[in-house]
């Protein structure tokens, strides 16, 4: 046996022994203790966590029939058939990587989280109905509809994170949206697309637009990464470009927005406050 083969054999033996130890450790930890640990992790970051039928998953993972994440205002994310597993093949290649899968009604969420180096993550969302995400009603008090698809990849999560988030929505409808106490127009949108880049400790909205029959909306700006949502300051600008007949149908809302007229038929609204509590 060559030195290289011997080193590989030793490495495989060490990883097998570690895997067995980890498996036995998790096997004998009660499900309730693991759930309490997960709950404490969320609580330390200002959120609540609850789960139905929380239990261990073979060979190394946890799963639950239903999970809910929220804060004092209520749940803002729920999912069914949630599962987190240690990826076996990357583990034996020397990487600690976890896989996440969950259902949101008819939609799917999947992702990966890598603990090596400065840590990285990636995720994909397919066919999730926005009305099945309670965030919009709980936090924004609005009715939002549409089918969401999104993907993202992030690196250097232990330092100044970098990466991107891309999303699109089919059949979007938004009603009852407010920024602070200021209402925004109700509308349906045939095209919703967005791209957010993460770099130098900031999330920069490179493009985010909503195109409806009588209204075009564009959001731009940035906010820092790291602080909890309640302490993350916003530096955003919301631009509204309505057609005359659309303005006529929602006179009251546009009268309230009159002081934000930047040019005829165009409104430019500064959005400040925090990520959890935006304001104009």
Structural summary, described in words:
The protein is α+β, with helices and mostly antiparallel strands and 280 residues long. It is 21% helix and 51% strand. It has helices spanning 3-27, 31-44, 88-92, 135-138, 244-249, 251-256; strands spanning 48-52, 55-57, 61-71, 74-86, 97-104, 107-114, 120-129, 143-155, 162-175, 178-179, 182-183, 187-199, 202-212, 215-224, 235-242, 261-263, 266-273, 278-279. The strands form 2 sheets. The chain has a 16-stranded antiparallel sheet that branches. A hairpin with a 2-residue loop joins strand 13 and strand 14 (215-224). The longest helix is centred in the first third of the chain and has 25 residues, at 3-27. The protein starts with a helix and ends with a strand. The mean pLDDT is 81.
| Tally of individual helices | 6
Please provide the count of β strands.
18
Query: Any low-confidence stretches, pLDDT <50, length ≥5?
Result: none
What is the structural class? Answer: alpha+beta
Multimeric state of these chains? single chain
The amount of helix comes to 10-25%
Strand content: over 45%
Number of domains: 2
Instruction: State the shape.
Output: elongated
Biggest beta-sheet profile: 16 strands, antiparallel
